[in-house]
Amino acid sequence: MDIIERYLEAVAAQLPTDDREDIVAELRDLILSRVEAREEELGRALTDEEKEAILHEIGHPLIVAARYRKGPDSLIGPELFPYWLFGAKAGLTLIAAVQALGLLIHVLGAPADVGRAIGQAFHGFFSGALTLLGALTLAGAVMEHFNIKPTWLTKWRVRDLSAFGLADPAKWGASLAGSEKAKAEWLPKGARVWGVAVNDKPGVEALVSLIVAGVFVMWWIGVISFPGLGAVHLRGGAVGMEPAPVWAALYGPILALAVGGMAVDAITLIRGREGRLGWFLKIPLAGAALWVLWRLFEAGWWFTLTQGDATARVEGGAAQISLQALRAINEAGRDLGGTALTLGTVLTWVFAIMAISFAVNIVGYMWRIATAKAC
Amino acid sequence: MDQALFETMRLELRRGTLVLAVLACLRTERYGYTLRQALAADGLEMEESTLYPLLRRLEGQGLLTSEWREEEKRKKRFYVLSPGGEAMLAALTEEWRGINASLERIL
Q1: Where do transmembrane segments lie in this chain (chain A) (predicted)?
Q2: Domains of chain B, with CATH numbers?
Q3: What is the ipTM for the molecules in this complex?
């Protein structure tokens, strides 16, 4: 078959049957007209390569055929896309919040089952998120295809818009990332936490961080203990949880890291603002935290679960950062091995997310230092 | 200057004017290939993959009429402005002149 006919056949396959013949006839005329014009210019017949060059100029069959398609060009058009995006962000935040709440209730109600509960929460979030995005896309595509414009798209009132500001997860994200403007927008004005004004952001953050780190350090050095932590009951009796040797090796660095963090928080609290000094000090701290996470990843073995004579290692690594590994959580049993697998995968994800967060923080602090006015 | 950004903005600027140019060119009956040549001769290069679907869309909107006729030993589809197309061209030309005059003052 001639190269031009092969091209036209590829285009025709993508066209609606009603118009196919007509469009292909017109395209054939266009291509032959261009070939003839070129042949006249050169004074000879074109080679297949030269004909192909003309077809390349006309475009890929999928693109050429798409231009003839009736109806919308995109699944979700530019008018509808902001609503789709808002729905996706708000919905994902809501699903995450519901799963987190469910997890909290589950852990408080049945602390023995924490590993499985975390696995279920992850699974619930991912399946809920996929369903939400699929449903939103389907609804949007139907509205786009049939040009449906509900009244909330066209007849909105300013007084109904406040929920949009509150429900914008981007603002929460910006706030968590330390954007002062975002915090000022969504934090309730005049609120106070333990005597410190909430709008005094660095102060509140430093205070909360100091307390949390203080509790952690006291627990880490054995001054306080949390009864029930590590007391897991599975089918077949109580389970013991022994830390892997890597924790002993990292005991000193983790303690130093926590104390260093407390020192920076204390400085921020005393000065009343983070400023360049705070950001400057937080860069090596975040770098050290990354190093600790790297060592944990390198070790790959974090705990050992024991039940009677049976033991199972809680292990993780790069292989666990996959959807397949998350699915495996769901299929893992409630026995010792299944619990170890679940804990290993969850910890891997937690460590990976922490590592990304520290890396982003380092870049963020550097950027702030570079762009901040002298203070 | 960011060349990629310039190219995007240039295409956006041209997009609306191409319809006007095509309608104006089809006051005289032409088929796709000669229409493209006529536009190019006046400095408006247009890709076939844009021009041909545009012609069909304008015909679907009732602004053009078309018929298949044999010329140079091959059947070709000839397009020309419909009465509705002529009215639209007049209205769009007036609009274009208004925009152009405003821009001239601003620029």
Answers
A1: 90-109, 121-143, 206-226, 246-267, 279-297, 346-367
A2: 3-106 (1.10.10.10)
A3: 0.77
